[in-house]
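call fold target=HK97 gp10 family phage protein
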Amino acid sequence: MVRARLDGLQRALRAVGRVPEAMRQARDETLREWADNVKSTAQEKVPRDRGELFQALDDRVNTHFGRADVGVWDADQLEYAMYVEKGTSKMQAQPYLVPAFNEHRRQVTRTYRAAFRRHIGGG
């Protein structure tokens, strides 16, 4: 009869069992942080003539589908938001959303990795 002793196998199996939940928690945390950061940066960059477009900026996080959006959904501000971002024949573009997205694009991977390590228990 041959016997093998597998030290740490139970601990390793428990750690593997924690992976899916740690991934979900890290994803949700990353989505929320990214959306909050993009929204804040867009609010810093948006022109504030009357402040209505600033107030209309919003974020939506859907953790069920793993999606985060930042933009303007207020029907009264939607068309104006596009004019400000892209400009018109009579108005120069004053981009605020695209620069905010670009500024925080690279943060996602770092944020996710750090959150995953925290949730899995690795630092």
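return ok
The radius of gyration is 22 Å. The chain is about 60% helix and 10% strand.
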